Amino acid sequence: MTPTAEKNNKSTICLVTPWPPQYSGIADYAYSLTAALIKHGLEVTIVTNCQNPTALAGCNILSINSDSELKNALDGHVMPIFQLGNHPDFHGFMLDAINWLGDNCLIELHDVVLHHLIIGATGNRNKDSFYLNWLERNYGSVISNQFESDKSFSLDETTSLDFLTYPCSDHIVDDCAGVIVHSHFAKSVLKNAGVTAPIWNINLYENNSAQFLNRIINDEEILKIGIFGGVQKNRKIESVIEALSSLSQKAIDRISLDIYGSIDSDCQYLIEKSNNNFGEKIKFHGRIEETEFHKAFLNTDLCISLRSPSMGETSAIVSRALSIGLPTIVSNTGWYAELPEFIPKVNNGKIESDLASLIEIISTNRALYAKFRNQFIDYARSLDGMDSLVDDLVSIRSGILERI
């Protein structure tokens, strides 16, 4: 693709991305990012495989169905930015275009480990699969055989597979003009994997909400604990349930647990799992629409978002929680470990005990919870929202355009 007059018109920008109502945190993030870009006076074109995209005033949305349609949609756009994650349904259509564009595109990478993206929706891992052939071509037969032989392909601590040494993203992004990540952890994974393309680490922000910041908490209310974004093995939801069920009766009487998001097949058993001391306090809501999600988010007193092990991902849920001052507990790993010091972080080897100690204290002492919450609110009020992120992103892209 040859640069056009757009090089000299930095007020135009193209994002290739999932888009609401697709069930993707990156889609929600892209919507917020686009609104912020428009607010900054940029003309934005969205290219997506979403077939019923949510309208957003001020941007042009192009829905595509094939590689040829994607190429046509990108024709004339210089340095489109790909919002890249690991879900094949939402990002698989981007791979050929990224390869085709090479150093004429910029990638904002939300998940460093992209094995699921390469495997595709079928999950096919046999000798003749696209996945194994891709691994052999890029990492050699010894490594491809290792990934074929471990049939579990699990994302929990028992896995023997070295995802972070062979993340797949290294070969996908290395020829592009640059990569934007949101943690030192992600940047180091890419560097260690041999990526030579420029890598920028910028903070991930969402816009804040006065609805939560100004909400009054009644001392007599139940502490509503929420988990958002899907039920998967490495989100350690079983450990959360075990931790909460081990609390004193006084604490159990003061809490509830609501879990929002689609449930992976290997986690379905959690719905049936009950504990005499706590089971009636848990509610699984499944995937809910954005308006209901927003309402649930604003009604939550404490968000728990764990990852063990971390695959280098960033969390739109956590960024959103922090932007509105919602107290949040995270894992002491990856991007999460780099969050501000006042945010409680539980160690992966001690999830249940660390979490139980924290919840016991803040559920039975509402004055302490109020103090805890005020730290998050003060932090949210100190943030620039997406303004800072947009400034960084536009500056990075403009710098690249100056050099081509």
Q: What features would you highlight for this structure?
A:
404 residues, alpha/beta, Rossmann fold, 2 domains, seven-stranded parallel sheet, 13 strands, globular, disordered N terminus
CATH superfamily of the largest domain: Glycogen Phosphorylase B
C-alpha termini separation = 12 Å
Tell me the fraction of residues in β-strands, as a range. 5-15%
**Overall helicity:** 40-55%
Describe it.
With about 400 residues, the protein is of the alpha/beta class. It has two domains: about 5-115 and about 165-205 and about 385-404, Rossmann fold (3-Layer(aba) Sandwich), CATH 3.40.50.2000; about 210-380, 3-Layer(aba) Sandwich (Rossmann fold), CATH 3.40.50.2000. It contains 19 helices and 13 strands. The two termini are about 10 Å apart.
Quick summary:
This protein has 404 residues and is an alpha/beta fold.
Topology at a glance:
Elements: E1 12-16, H1 25-39, E2 43-48, E3 59-63, H2 67-74, E4 81-84, H3 88-91, H4 95-101, E5 106-109, H5 115-119, H6 130-139, H7 141-149, H8 169-173, E6 178-181, H9 184-192, E7 199-201, H10 210-213, E8 223-228, H11 237-245, H12 249-252, E9 255-260, H13 269-272, E10 282-286, H14 290-298, E11 302-305, H15 316-323, E12 328-331, H16 334-337, E13 345-346, H17 351-364, H18 366-382, H19 386-403
Parallel strand pairs: 1-2, 1-4, 2-3, 4-5, 5-6, 6-7, 8-9, 8-11, 9-10, 11-12, 12-13
Helix pairs in contact: 6-7, 11-17, 17-18
